[in-house]
Specification:
With 155 residues, the chain is an alpha+beta fold. It has one domain (2-154): 2-C-methyl-D-erythritol 2,4-cyclodiphosphate synthase (60s Ribosomal Protein L30, Chain: A), CATH 3.30.1330. Helices cover 31% and strands 29% of the residues. The protein has helices spanning 39-52, 57-60, 73-84, 106-119, 138-141; strands at 2-13, 18-20, 23-25, 30-31, 91-99, 127-132, 145-154. The strands form two sheets. The chain has a five-stranded mixed beta sheet. The mean pLDDT is 97.
């Protein structure tokens, strides 16, 4: 068994949809990035790659490559899992935390779990999504950005 940890953070900007866990969430801002900037799925990709000892998301899907411009992070997660699953075919569990002052994540977490589970071919019960605020402190607390952290256990 191998454990991986992933973390990602992006700035909130106007004029983009907010996508977290593959779900478009109604909000007045979205995350800035080369792809759809889905911090949850980027953190998960990094956790999976880290567990497999295969570097990070930036090595495999660089923001300098036009092929990844505005790409869905669900596609990136699928491609990440395809790279890893031949050597480590089982994801035993995924635990994640989204750090956001707003919007509220709970109403969307079941759909996120289903999208993640389907993408990596596991049961939604093996995916946990939590959310917390920064209590008004710092970058996240001032509603300037959203971050996510994931831990994954593969075998």
């Amino acid at each position: 068994m191998r454990i991986g940890i992933g973390y990602d953070i992006h700035r909130l900007i106007t004029g983009r949809p907010l996508v977290l866990g593959g779900v478009e969430i109604p909000f007045d801002k979205g995350l800035d990035g080369h792809s759809d900037a889905d911090v949850l799925l980027h953190a998960l990709c990094d956790a999976i790659l880290g567990a497999a000892g295969m570097g990070d998301i930036g090595q495999h899907f660089p923001d300098t490559d036009p092929a990844y411009k505005n790409i869905s992070s669900v596609v990136l997660l699928s491609e990440t899992w395809e790279m890893v699953r031949h050597q480590y075919p089982d994801i035993l569990n995924i635990d994640s935390t989204i750090f956001a002052e707003s919007p509220k994540i709970l109403p969307f977490s079941d759909e996120m779990r289903k999208i993640i589970a389907t993408t990596v071919s596991i049961d939604p019960g093996q995916v946990n999504i939590k959310a917390t605020t920064a209590e008004g402190m710092g970058f996240i607390g001032k509603k300037e950005g959203i971050a996510a952290m994931c831990v994954v256990l593969i075998a």
